[in-house]
Amino acid sequence: MAAAPTALFPPDFLQRLEYLSLLSKRVFAGQLMAQKRTRQLGGGVEFADHRQYDPGDDFRHLDWNLYARHGELLLKRFQEEQDLHVYLLIDASKSMAHGAPPKFDLARQVAAALAYIALADLDRVAVVAFAGGVVEEMPLTRGKGRALALLQFLEKLEARGEETNLSNLVAEFLLRGRRSGLVAVLSDFYDPAGFSAPLSKLRHGGHEPHVVQIYDAAEADPGFLGDVELTDVESGRAVKRTVTEKDLRRYREAFDGFRKELAAFCRSRGWGHTTSRSDVRFDDLVVSMMRGANLVQA
């Protein structure tokens, strides 16, 4: 399987994805292994417990050894491993096109890596691009043979959506009644309405959120002084002002506080959280995510 080399996916990209797949010990597992196992009656892979026999139950699932010893009719219950559903939600709003390199490029590369690892593990993967709501979607797919189609889908995405609206995204996402799974949200999280309520709704909807926050170095430390005109790339709103050293200091503190707030919010709920500048290598970031989840050895 070979993909045409592009700036987003260079010639060795698939080789790097395969390396990450081999390195991973189920990068999506971690706390989510419980989601990959569902209790079934008999025929499973691992014994779980017993339950009382009810008229009509299959006699093949009775624990005959227990019946011989104690005369009790109890059925064996097993845990049977199920495939995990992985949903990758990628922010395609205009602010994601900002950066050197653009935040959107890293988001798509990381999404490709996470998707490839899941596909190699026979999990099911869907990709959803969003801005004011869902703008593009690749439905659930399965198997490494779908990796090329997934890369082509990601390559065609553009960060030109309207202002980010996480609430609309989550409402649309949950409305479609998707099976519970891991939901990785890759975004700069510049939503004027905030992130806490929509991310909480994802969890209440039975999903396990993992947040990947991407920012540009210049956003953390703009470094300009004097008379400037600042324009919101998503809303188009502009403001003129004179930027002083004090203003820059307050801005840096506010930006750092915003990143720490999101991290603390996820940490307090036991959710996965990763934050990164847009100029890091995607595979370094994914390895860091795996090591943070204790899935690979340092």
Short key terms for the protein model shown above:
11 strands; alpha/beta; three-stranded antiparallel β-sheet; six-stranded mixed β-sheet; 298 residues; disordered C terminus
Q: In whole angstroms, how far apart are the ends? A: 30 Å
Instruction: Let me know the largest β-sheet.
Output: 6 strands, mixed
- Radius of gyration from the alpha-carbon trace, in angstroms: 23 Å
Structural class: alpha/beta
Encode the helix/strand succession as letters: HEEHEEHEEHHEHEHEEHEH
**How many E-type strands?**
11
Give an overview of the whole structure.
The chain is an alpha/beta fold and 298 residues long. The protein is 35% helix and 25% strand. Helix 1 (13-23) packs across helix 3 (103-120) and helix 5 (166-175) packs parallel to helix 6 (196-204). It is elongated, with a radius of gyration of 23 Å. Mean pLDDT is 85; it is low at 26-43 and 294-298.
In a few lines, what is going on in this structure?
The protein has 298 residues and is α/β, with parallel strands linked by helices. It has helices at residues 13-23, 64-70, 103-120, 147-156, 166-175, 196-204, 217-220, 245-268, 282-292, and strands at residues 37-41, 46-52, 74-81, 85-91, 124-130, 134-142, 182-187, 208-215, 226-231, 238-243, 272-277.
